[in-house]
Model the fold of this input.
Amino acid sequence: MAVAAVLLGGGAVGCGGEAGGESGTEDLAKLAPAAAMEKVAEESEGITSLRYRVTGTVPEKGSLRAEASMKAKPAAMTMVMTLAGARKGQLDIRFIDEAIYLGGSGIDSSKLGGKGWVRASPAVWGRGAADNKSYGVLPRSLEVSPVVQSTFLAGSQDVRRVGTETVDGAKAVHYRGTVTSRELRAAQSADKGKDAWDARTERVDQFVNLGIDGTLTMDLWVDGDDHPKQFRVQGKTYPTQNDTDDGTLDLTVTFLDINQKVTVKAPPADDTTELGG
Done:
């Protein structure tokens, strides 16, 4: 929590177009909902980079909006996040080479010693619940990979197709369902193949990172390439000392570009100070 507490004080986000076309969404809609979710999960394994937007409410920080880009190998992420109710400004957050860099107008500049950025390490984003570390800068739900989050309904027992809608200019099939940690673990146990086991284990780990107390409700919109276009997650989380809004999680993530080039660069060394340095 050191970076957030020291620097923020009282407070301080492609796929556009009809990917795959209308025929792709029609083909997906012909599948049973559970089979469609498995297909989407399989296709998501081929996503190596992503540009996305996040809006909603998280227990630790309240309302927020963020735009981000990430890549899988080597793992890196860059995000600009704005918190409602925080003092005016934005946070510019970068994860690269297992370090976190924090800059932007939302930082208390008096804490930076004349520099524009602060660096802390080790820092990890996009892994399981036990591995992520963002020094309290990111809420738990934004430490999770949005690609993995989008596959949670592959463990749902009640997923259903709602209809076909347009999301950010793309035609998409809308699914809705609920999922629990127990259901994801049961699906994990049912798979004996190594690849399937690894994918489902990652899904369980990242679900745990959300801190859901009971059932998560999820809406998922899938484009004509069987890729997630948008998803919304809602639920109550286990209470923590930093909770706002009674532990309410309500986030919508929209995929803006998939598998396009993403570059994340560390800020200039001469404009960066080390946490505690």
